[in-house]
Amino acid sequence: MILVLGLNHKTAPVSIRERISFGPDILAGALRSLLEHPSVREALILSTCNRTELYSVLDPNQGEPLADWLGKFHGLDPERIAPYLYTHRDREAIAHLLRVASGLDSMVLGEPQILGQVKSAFQSARTAGTVGKLLERLFQHCFSVAKQVRTDTAIGNSPVSIAFAAVRLAHQIFSDLRAQTALLVGAGETIELAARHLEQQGIGRIIVANRTVERAHVLAAQFGGYAISLTELANHLPEADIVISSTASPLPVLGKGTVERALKVRRHRPIFMVDIAVPRDIEPEVGELDDIYLYTVDDLQEVIDEGLRSRQEAAQAAQEIIDFHTEEFLAWLRSLDALELIQDYRKRAEAVRDEVLHAALRRLRAGKPPQEVLRFLAHTLTNKLLHAPSARLRQAGRAGEAEILEAANELFDLNDTSSA
Question: Does one domain contain both 350 and 240?
Fold first, then answer.
């Protein structure tokens, strides 16, 4: 049985999620500990800021008290975390993993980072030696499906965050960002996210302005940019083709006069400006200037709402892909039972063949005529191979077990069960 046990941002607050997360320093030991559990044959742990999930292949003859293991490993009473946990088995477990890897179960619908985190978790489990045949096949299948979802749907194409929306608009105004300079005012989470998106779009240069220059240096260094203080803003504004501002300042940090002077130096080359701050960082009158494209949080919210609608429509198409591939993997799982049965039956038939062949060779060595030995071989081999199924069919006939007779008819491709 395949089992998923976990919690995420929907079921547990951060105070619980942080208590049962698995950092890189303890992950390998946790995987080995989980594999030592009497129920567990294979194991993988996915741990991010938004979720902790145990993926296991369990012995069907054992219990599955993995919630106890999870709580005790982190020194917590299992009953304390029980209300936050969810459990998925077999089909639901497979479908859940495909949804997670495709970004359909994320805090931000369609976000791509989770696929990289799933791949990292898989590699860690592989390195620890806790992945076997089933989890290997399941996660390779999951990576293929997630790639198809990205390729065949628009699940990740539309902006659904302020930072993403700002960069998307900048890309619409400057079709090629490689020759552009971005001036980021502030050094908080939104500005960092904007810098990351700009880097992904190939921005030519990044300048980070912040009240605390040290913080600006730390952020700028991540993206090959350079840092300035807010007092230097007016001097560097003429360099900027794109300005994204998000500070906690109670008063505007960019006024109409400062922007007018920058435009003169730029010889009226346009500037795209996004004011994410509340209260505003850029005076509203700046938007009245020619060659200035000024957007506020409210303007971007329309872009975000449209992006969410687009992603939700794409999510429906993605779910159809996931449903299909969930059934495809289940079919492969079911085929394993048939494969084992075929292998066992073939081994038995080969053992019978070897036994009869040895008997026939002894007869040849004893001087028996080859035709007589061949008749002995054919007759004896046929009788031995058919003895067990014939006896069971006779028993089924006496007991009125019509379903066995019907199955035999289909299995042996016979036209009439009476001939058995």
Answer: no
